[in-house]
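Thread: quick sanity check before group meeting

JM: Hey all, I'm pulling together slides for Thursday and realized we never actually wrote out the predicted structure for the chain we discussed last week. Dropping the sequence here so it's in one place. If anyone has concerns about the input, flag it before I start.
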Amino acid sequence: MKILSIKSAKQTIYFGTDFLPAVDFLSRTMMPGIFIPCCQVKAVKNYMPSPKKVLISFVQSPNSKIKISENGERVVIFDDWSKSVPTYILSLISSLFQKQYLKHDLFSIHSSAVFGNTTNFIFIGKAGSGKTTTAIELVSRHQYKFLSNNRTVISADGLNIEAGTQSITVRNESIGSLDSFTEPHIENIYGRKVIRFRSKYLGNYRNNKKNIFIKLQLNPAVSEFKKMEFDESMIFLYPNLLDIYDREVLLFNWSVPAPISPLTIKDKKKALDLAHKIYNESVIYHLSGSLDFICEQITNLDSNE
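JM (edit): ok, ran it. Output follows.
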């Protein structure tokens, strides 16, 4: 059996299978660190972890419907991946990592993040709200440092940013404008290029800077900038917590044939408690407008903190 160890934020999940296309798929999609912060994938040679450590096993079962047998934290998948490896495996791995984060009082937020002179800015919003676009603009034109794209891991104790996904997926036509800031693209995933900022544009985690959350919406027709009270902010931010509760919905709104989250009610309750603690101890703004308007408000906030 081929064993992969998938490491992220000091956590390790083992994936074992005799079906080599699954190994190739995970090596390509997980290595760039798009989906899980600080992710690394490598084969474990001449070593077979004990059954308790192989948290995910896949058995190729032609012409069968998906079946997932779950026993504690061990997951066995019976499915037909002969034509393609379905994207639900990424949601499953992300869900298992989320379970590990919660054990260490870490909370993974669907967001992008940068830091400036005094402040970490964490952009929250639905897909297409402009989180990545705003982060790229601040790094490339306003000398901000890039912390994460897509997922940011924050500690409930101290509110430090512990990790983030530092790869970005962009359309082919967008690459030229970023050439001077990024390394050569490292992978093609789902019809998009995967790129990373050069090291001098990357920020440090655990930097002890103040966090400001921005509920972001890139919309030139509506310019709004408002500090939000906690109760008000939770109403707006609650939909962004759903990826914790409903892990069968993937990062790019893919759907899967069956709920596969190993998160228990207890896990979800802890996630909600951590979210409440983090947001209650943070400053949160609602910001909508053109890209120029948004960047102007953020740079003003940074200079006034």
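AS: nice. The chain has a mean pLDDT of 80. Residues 88-103 form the longest helix (16 residues).
JM: adding both to the slides.
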